[in-house]
Amino acid sequence: MFAIEALPGLAVPAPNVAGHSASGRGSVTGLLGQSDSLLVGLFAASTILIGLMAGLFFAYSVSVVLALETLPASAYTQVMQSINEKILNAVFGIAFGGAIVVPVVGTLVVFAGGHWTMTYGQSFLMASLIYLVGTVGITSRIHIPMNDSIETWSVESPPDDWRTVRSRWAQWNHVRTVAAVVSFVLSLVATASMT
Prior knowledge:
Largest sheet: none
Number of strands: 0
Shape: elongated
Structural class: mainly alpha
Number of helices: 5
Helix content: over 70%
């Protein structure tokens, strides 16, 4: 073997046992760091968005629902129709839609990167599953159809079963609120474990 001496002022990358230069290792480490940064960003965004929705549903449960229980049929119908109309705005749409899209993207990245074997990955997957099933699923399968039905009610003569509808709406709102809060806590755990 011949000894190779570096010329003065010339830096020669030292080879490692695998035959890759130290600069190559730095590139790989940089890529892994970027992947981790992406995951942290997705976790944090998901936590914020789910937290916003959990706060909205919690506020409904501890204030709006209680107020609605005191209203007579006509007033309940009028207020619910107004709420269901006003809530369909851009801010709500971004928060509600984002709280679906970001966890789904995060879930794909967790699986693609093999992070599902880690505690933070498992916490995030549980958070996403609970939110998508327990909050989004209930909203789409129960509350939206009920809201669409309430929209057709006459303010002057609501249907005879309006109290049953009001009670069912409130009960399922409590369920989706619990699901959203649990999901928010798990998202916080996942994000904190990554940072």
